[in-house]
Design a protein that fits this description.
The chain is of the alpha/beta class. It folds into two domains: 177 residues, Aspartate Aminotransferase, domain 1 (Alpha-Beta Complex); 258 residues, Type I PLP-dependent aspartate aminotransferase-like (Major domain) (Aspartate Aminotransferase, domain 2), CATH 3.40.640.10. Helices cover 36% and strands 16% of the residues. It has 13 helices and 15 strands. The strands form three sheets. Strands 4-10-9-8-7-5-6 form a seven-stranded mixed β-sheet, with helices on both faces. Strand 1 and strand 2 form a beta hairpin. Helix 7 packs parallel to helix 8. The longest helix is centred in the C-terminal third of the chain and has 21 residues. It is globular, with a radius of gyration of 21 Å. Bound molecules: pyridoxal-5'-phosphate (PLP). The site of pyridoxal-5'-phosphate (PLP) has 14 residues, from helix 5.
Length: 447
């Protein structure tokens, strides 16, 4: 038996540049990648990882990078978080798979019960488990259609819901997600999103009225199965809708028997300093979708919601070979415990306060930062040409490249490619959070 020499909790919590980024071993691996992996699978920062934990990612060349990405909001409790490692190790020794639809196991039921408990609302709930975020979105739409007997689905401007055929249709941005990949699923409609920085500062009620007018005039509530929305948009640019927007939409859905689906795949699971972003305005979705942060890096997703809606799909109508795999379920239970035992909701709020404070100070002296927004450990800046609101994607790319070269992992996003987003794991130590912010300040000074 081989022994694991380094565990995540042993990793030195420091930034360290042993070579240029990427180093020679990563460059060689990237050449092999180009020869072996389909070109459509891109890489943002091609350093090849050998270990990660706390606030760092360590590569094959011995570089230790500060992680402001969490593998796109996945390793919220930390990479290889100790409780997750223990739970998965124990499970992998016991059994790796049976298929829950063939011979079930307890951890799946425990995860479903935990999701029913921790998601908003005290009504009777049921959950179903899947593998990826896109799969959760697909299944939520299936369930909403089965329950309502209606077909149409509304998604929003700047929405991102995945890369499968139905979720491409729900996703707003053409390049790189949709272009050339059609035809797309039918009966998907788009409504305007509340985007305070770019919609003239419409208040939430007014923005919701605009969206509802589009829905009523172009689709009609009688034809509408569901409204799908990210309470804080992810890939679309970390857009936080104006207060009142989500409650007004949810209320309209309730009045019209339309299923209100919150896609919390990126914003959920403690990321924003609450378990779910929709809790900020006491919005209770009919169905809530989770993935990414749910299982500390193991592939798992879920649809959770009102029992009468969830139970509308007949036995055999939902499922999949791997959905709710036992390793992923063990990980998810450990994640839920860790969020609680380590007070990670508080930690997310502290991280958010620190980042917002530093970024607002920076924005006050740099007019290219048009907007600073987000909540908890889900924070972004939108970059524009000075004195305008014209998106500056080139500057955004330069700042990201500068940060990468300095050993700070940051991601970009946004319909206009001009948003830098920060998603540190909640295991990020204060000194690395501060050092990451120093690098960002330097990046703006030098670009
Ligand atoms: C990432 C994401 C998805 C898709 O999840 P996958 O696991 O990549 O399929 C869906 N919705 C939102 C909001 C996301 O951020």
């Amino acid at each position: 038996m081989t022994t694991i020499e380094t565990t995540a909790s042993d990793l030195a919590q420091r930034r360290h540049l042993a070579t240029a980024i990427p180093g020679p071993k990563s460059v060689a691996l990237q050449a092999e990648k180009q020869a072996a992996v389909a070109a459509g699978v891109g890489t943002t920062l091609p350093v090849y990882v050998v270990a990660a934990g706390g606030g760092v990612v360590v590569d094959v060349d011995g570089n230790s990078l500060i992680d402001f990405g969490s593998g796109i909001a996945v390793t919220t409790v930390g990479n290889s978080a100790p409780a997750v490692v223990d739970a998965v190790t124990e499970q992998v020794r016991a059994f790796t798979h049976t298929c829950f639809m063939v011979t079930p196991y307890e951890s799946y039921v425990r995860v479903a019960a935990a999701l029913n408990r921790i998601t908003p609302g005290d009504h009777d709930k049921r959950s179903a488990l899947f593998n990826s975020g896109a799969e959760a979105v697909e299944n939520a739409v299936k369930i909403a259609r089965a329950y309502t007997g209606r077909q149409a689905v509304v998604a929003f401007d700047h929405a991102y819901h995945g890369r499968t055929n139905l979720t491409m249709a729900l996703t707003a941005k053409s390049k790189p997600y949709k272009s050339g990949f059609g035809p797309f699923a039918s009966e998907v409609y788009r409504a305007p999103m509340s985007y305070p920085y770019r919609d003239g500062g419409l208040d939430g009620a007014a923005a919701a009225k605009d969206a509802i007018t589009v829905i009523e005039k172009q689709i009609g509530a009688d034809n509408l199965a569901a409204v799908v929305i990210e309470p804080i948009q992810g890939e679309g640019g970390f857009i936080v809708p104006a207060p009142g927007f989500l409650p007004a939409l949810a209320a309209w859905c309730r009045r019209n028997d339309v299923v209100f689906i919150a896609d919390e795949i990126q914003s959920g699971f403690a990321r924003t300093g609450q378990m779910f972003a929709c809790e900020d305005e006491n919005v209770v979705p009919d169905l809530i979708l989770t993935a990414k942060g749910i299982a500390g890096g193991l592939p798992l997703s879920a649809v959770t919601g009102r029992a009468e809606i969830m139970d509308a799909a007949p036995a055999g109508g939902l499922g999949g070979t791997y959905g709710g795999n036992p390793l992923a379920c063990a990980a998810a239970l450990a994640v839920i415990d860790t969020i609680d035992s380590e007070n990670l909701l508080d930690r997310a709020r502290q991280i958010g306060d620190t980042m917002l404070d530093r970024l607002r100070t920076l924005a006050a002296s740099d007019a290219r930062i048009g907007d600073v927004r987000g909540r908890g450990a889900m924070i972004a800046v939108e970059l524009v040409e000075e004195g305008t609101k014209t998106p500056d994607a080139a500057l955004t790319a330069r700042i990201a490249a500068y940060a990468h070269a300095q050993g700070l992992i940051v991601l970009t996003c946004g319909t206009y490619g001009n948003v830098l987003r920060f998603l540190p794991p909640l295991s990020m130590p204060d000194h690395l959070l501060a050092e990451g912010m120093d690098i960002l300040e330097q990046a703006f000074r030098e670009n």
